[in-house]
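Chapter review: from sequence to fold.
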Amino acid sequence: QVQLVESGGGLVQPGGSLRLSCAASGSIFSINAMGWYRQAPGKQRELVAAITSGGSTNYVDSVKGRFTISRDNAKNTVYLQMNSLKPEDTAVYYCNADLSVTGWDESDFWGQGTQVTVSS
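The C-alpha cell string follows.
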C-alpha cells in the first residue's frame, strides 16, 4: 500500500517562510511527476508546483519567484520551499505523486493535506 505523508505546515507571519515535505512509502516501482496542490476555503484545488523525475519544474504564476519545488529521488520525497509568504497563500496543501506500483500501471496518489496559514 502506498502512502504519502506530508509535514511542515503551520502558522507564519506575512513575509515568512515554510518548508513542506512529502515522503512516499510502500510498494513503489517508480515515481514520475510529484507536485503540490492547495485548496483555500471556498476555492477549487489548484496546482502550485510540479516536478518531473528528471527535475523539470513548473509553477503557478502567483508563486513564481517565491516558491521552489525539489525532490530527492533516493528518498521518494518532494519538498516545497515557500518564501515571502502572503495571506493569500493560506490553504491546505496536498502532495501528489504520479507513480507505478508494478511497472505496468500508473496512478495518482494524494497525501492527507497540511494546513498553511499566513497571518499576522
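Two observations follow directly from the output. The chain is about 0% helix and 55% strand. The radius of gyration is 14 Å.
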